[in-house]
Sequence to fold (421 residues):
Amino acid sequence: MGSKENSIIADLSLAPEGHLKIDWASSHMPVLNRIREQFEQDKPFEGLKVSISLHLEAKTAYLAKVVQAGGAEVTITGSNPLSTQDDVCAALVEDGITVYAKYNPTAAEFKALNMKALENNPDLIIDDGGDLVTLLHTESKEHAVNLRGGAEETTTGIIRLRALEKQGELQFPMIAVNDAFCKYLFDNRYGTGQSVFDGINRTTNLVVAGKTVVVVGYGWCGKGVAMRAKGMGANVIVTEIDAIKAVEAYMDGFAVMPMLEAAKVGDMFVTVTGNRDVIRGEHYEVMKDGAILSNAGHFDVEVNKVELEAMSVSKRTVRRNIEEYKMKDGRKFYLLAEGRLVNLAAGDGHPAEIMDMTFALQAMSLKYVNEQYNTIGKQVVNVPYELDEQVARYKLESLGFGIDKLSAEQAAYLDSWAEGE
Ligand code: NAD
Ligand code: ADE
Fold:
């Protein structure tokens, strides 16, 4: 059966819009385009099945097409119920990729779609947040028979992988793409920084300047969100549980305080910790009327929705992707995109030029794990430095500028302990 008969998507007739989106994205992804050219020649995945779980928007679709250009039979599913774009799915099906994804499925449908993507016993996977890996260690265990290994996209997925590895349960090698320099320095920081406000701004149509924006978590993503909030004229408060990150935020010019204090003064909240319940009942008790709550962390557990619901007397949708919760005392809070990653559930994700580097790393890592899976074994390993650096070099070349080279004398000086002058 072909991709059209196999796929489960919302509506194939949406394909033309999807093709336009993918064309626009791919024309801004020069690094991935170079990898596509190499893959078209070398066919590193000839005869292999690759299953992908990623936020299914245009840049991701282009990655799927690049892997397909490398000879793979590609199956793709969504990584979040609200980040799938139906027109993009339709375009991929027309291009011969099997898609199991639609926008806003129920939790049970979402899981069933993820499971469908594993039924063909893939040789390789790309995961975002660890859902495919979890299925391959539990309910879809039998579909890991051919699995050589895979690559993981995000911080939360790597935390889950390392926990599996620590328990001695990990069944195949996984490459920690998130931990490559060309990933977290650009994607987590600049990508999240920009796309979070793209999501918030297009959803709320409100001003950021002058507002007090509370950024919860000052990791790679939090730094980007705080930097962009400041750039738009917000008064930025950072909350942290890590003393070093808290000092860093302070030195970067932000106010730092516990969440219970920040909750009293914040107009807008962005959680980006990868942790659960970072905004919860005790914080709703003291929040100001009109507070806007959003999350950019991988799962929708950062803003505690159960407590928010329990403490409110009514809930209604006041605008697409905005739920109003009214408290007993009349205060109203606004939760964006159901507390799911606001940049993807209420936006298009990171800019194309950023995902260009991330997805170049994904494509190269997939090739690497396919070549090295026997030597790597059942471990989580980093992207080799040479691949990381290759992505940076391709990026520089695409930007049209060069950098200096070490002279032989400089290299010797940097290698030496004896030369001090
Ligand atoms: P990170 O580990 O660099 O940073 C997380 C920070 O949160 C740490 O500094 C940690 O100390 C802090 N933290 C943990 N619990 C906290 C709490 N209770 N209160 C305040 N701070 C707390 O991780 P990261 O790379 O910044 O990723 C954060 C989350 O965002 C992860 O879930 C990741 O998967 C996700 N992510 C989302 C996108 C996106 O497009 N929305 C992109 C990349 C990563
Ligand atoms: N677009 C596709 N995948 C993404 C991700 N993991 N983060 C941000 N934007 C994306």
User: Anything to note?
Assistant: The first strand starts at residue 49 and ends at 54.
